[in-house]
Amino acid sequence: MKILAMGLSMTPKYSQWRDQMVNDNIPVSNLETARSLEEHLQVLPSEIEIIKQDFEKRSLELGKKIEQLEE
Q1: Per the domain annotation, does 5 fall within a domain?
Q2: Residue 21 lies in a domain
Q3: pLDDT (tens digit, 9 = 90+) per residue, 19-32?
Q4: Which domain holds residue 16?
Q5: Can you say whether the dihedral through the CA atoms of 50, 54, 60, 63 is positive or negative?
Q6: 10: Cα within 13 Å, side-chain hemisphere
């Protein structure tokens, strides 16, 4: 019963102040830094995958140069 009695004795000014304090603690998302769900869940390639892609690209370039020299 004490809680009920205390709840009734709150002034409107205090109630408004308390609601404002609660609302100030709720984080608001910033649209400039917000990312879409697809961007957030995007899988980034590991270092070994990047090296492998670079190796394959250079191998292809060298293969083309060898073909040109053979002609």
Answers
A1: yes
A2: yes
A3: 887 777 776 667 66
A4: 1-25
A5: negative
A6: 13
Output the CA–CA distances (angstroms, integers) from residue 11 to 7, 8, 43, 67, 70, in the order listed: 9, 8, 53, 88, 92
Dihedral sign (CA 55, 61, 64, 65): negative
N-term to C-term CA, the chain: 98
What's the pLDDT tens digit per position in 46-61? 999 999 999 999 999 9
DSSP code for 26: S
CA gap 38, 53 in Å, rounded: 23
Quick one: which of 3, 4, 5, 22 has its CA closest to 14? Answer: 22
Pairwise CA distance, residues 39 & 45, whole Å = 14
